[in-house]
Amino acid sequence: MIANEAPGNADLAAQALTALKPHAARHAGNSVVVLNLLQLALGTKNKVEARAIVELADWSQVSVQKESLSTLSLCLRSLHALNWMDLASELLAKIVPDSQRTA
Asked: Of 95, 44, 40, 97, which Cα lies nearest the Cα of 68?
């Protein structure tokens, strides 16, 4: 949480991500854990780490947790700022169920 409050400190974000990543799979459906890990990965500007978290998360659980909406919005803005539109698109595709997508 401290690392996410200091968004300009990539070293602190990397340390926190390294410490927390081993616990990610166990908490793949917890919006607080998943979105904080994603924010940390975005803070390190490590697209490989960010993509791994997007792939790992159980978005069917995360996307229905109301407390995730503001942090999800921050993640999407961060993806836009990094110009990682492909990853933003992947994230949105995982959040929005197939039945709700339109052409």
From this structure: 95
State both tokens at 87: 């990853």
pTM for the predicted model, two decimal places: 0.79
Q: What's the 3-state SS for 7-67?
A: CCCHHHHHHHHHHHHHHCHHHCCCHHHHHHHHHHHHHHCCHHHHHHHHHHCCHHHHCCCHH
Buried b / exposed e across 67-100, counting CB within 10 Å, b at 16+? ebeebbebbeebbeeeebeebbebbeebbeeeee
pLDDT tens, residue by residue, 24-34: 889 888 888 88
